[in-house]
Design brief:
Blueprint (H helix, E strand, L loop, with lengths): L1 H37 L3 H12 L12 H44 L8
Helix pairs in contact: 1-2, 1-3, 2-3
């Protein structure tokens, strides 16, 4: 079951990779713009981006300008979408692994094996 899950997961990730990478690049780009405006180092800007995008929000970095606050809100929304995308891919991979499980059992047990309802 685990092997089937990971096979289905990789297959699903290939499908959504362009969307996922686009969201990730938009988040990183917005985070770097925020870092530039707020005069943060690159590592601080990336840290802020992922803490905000994952909706953790420690509060150790907070944007002070109106534009950077709006960009931070956009990063938060993009992070929620990205998290939902990851969850949807995992659920689809579990469904695919579960659907192929009876087929694998039938191959092992033969066509006359009795199945439980």
């Amino acid at each position: 079951m685990r092997r089937m899950f990971f096979r289905a997961l990789v297959q699903q990730l290939r499908v959504v990779w362009p969307i996922f990478s686009g969201i990730l690049l938009a988040m990183v780009g917005a985070g770097l713009v925020i870092g530039r405006i707020e005069d943060w180092r690159v590592d601080e800007a990336l840290y802020f981006t992922f803490v905000t995008g994952l909706t953790i929000g420690y509060g150790d970095f907070s944007p002070q300008h109106v534009l950077t606050r709006l960009l931070a809100i956009a990063i938060g929304f993009a992070g929620v979408v990205m998290t939902g995308l990851v969850v949807a891919v995992a659920v689809q991979a579990l469904k695919a692994a579960n659907r192929s499980l009876p087929n694998e059992e039938a191959k092992k047990n033969g066509p006359l094996a009795q199945r439980d309802p």
